[in-house]
């Protein structure tokens, strides 16, 4: 087997495809075999291709690929196939943010998901004036008149159980007055 692997992974409820290659020094016709506890997998005995639709639940499976030349020569590749979901990641987390009182605040969060899942955003906070764009991750609002400190928790989810959270403190502060002196 010219391209063995120790492990592989597939996203829950997504198609899986892996093509194995093999060679024989004498040029004999090769025959593939497969043993697995993943009942959802199929394989091509003539070409070493493994495929299937992953289950919607997380799990770990074994796959034993065999290759025979029909004259006693053989090779094998045993690997672990994980079905799961990699969580999205917030790319620009912050620890604190400061805004003036009675001012607009807008903080744009960005996230990426390794499997390109559709992401949705949610918000928990004691700052009732804030909201989050469920599709774009922008936290915005008009700050209150009284200076105060608020906690904010922004979550991004991929719909398959993966999520990332950023917690930060929002401080609403007062602009100090300014004095202008004008000469007579």
Describe this structure in words.
By secondary structure, the chain is mainly β. The chain is built from no helices and 16 strands. Strands 1-7-6-3 form a four-stranded mixed beta sheet, with no helix packed on it. Strands 9-16-15-12 form a four-stranded mixed beta sheet, with no helix packed on it. The protein is rod-shaped and about 110 Å long. The model has no long low-confidence stretch (mean pLDDT 94).
Task: Show the helix and strand layout.
Blueprint: E1 7-11, E2 15-19, E3 31-36, E4 41-43, E5 49-53, E6 59-68, E7 74-84, E8 89-90, E9 96-100, E10 104-108, E11 111-112, E12 120-125, E13 130-132, E14 138-142, E15 148-157, E16 163-173
Parallel strand pairs: 1-7, 9-16
Antiparallel strand pairs: 2-5, 3-6, 4-5, 6-7, 8-11, 10-14, 12-15, 13-14, 15-16
Compute the average pLDDT.
94
Query: Which class of secondary structure composition applies to the elements?
Result: mainly beta
Any idea what the shape is? rod-shaped
Distance between the termini: 93 Å
The helix-strand sequence is EEEEEEEEEEEEEEEE
Q: Order of strands side by side in the largest beta sheet?
A: 1-7-6-3
Helix content: under 10%
Number of helices: 0
Uncertain parts: none
Strands, count: 16
Rg over alpha carbons: 28 Å
Name the features.
4-stranded mixed β-sheet; mainly beta; 184 residues
């Amino acid at each position: 087997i010219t391209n063995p692997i120790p492990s592989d992974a597939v996203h829950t409820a997504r198609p899986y495809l892996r093509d194995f290659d093999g060679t024989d020094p004498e040029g004999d016709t090769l025959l593939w075999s497969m043993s697995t506890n993943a009942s959802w997998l199929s394989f091509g005995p003539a070409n070493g291709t493994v495929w299937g639709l992953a289950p919607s639940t997380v799990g770990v499976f074994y796959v034993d690929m065999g290759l025979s030349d029909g004259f006693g020569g053989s090779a094998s590749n045993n690997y672990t196939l994980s079905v799961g979901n990699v969580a999205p990641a917030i790319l620009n987390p912050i620890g604190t943010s400061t805004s003036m009182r009675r001012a607009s605040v807008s903080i744009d969060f960005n996230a990426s998901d390794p499997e390109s899942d559709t992401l949705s955003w949610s918000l928990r906070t004691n700052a009732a004036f804030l909201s989050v764009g469920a599709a774009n991750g922008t936290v915005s609002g008009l700050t209150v008149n009284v200076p105060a400190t608020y906690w904010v928790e922004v979550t991004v989810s991929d719909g398959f159980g993966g999520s990332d959270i950023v917690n930060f403190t929002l401080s609403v502060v007062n602009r100090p007055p300014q004095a202008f002196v004008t000469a007579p």
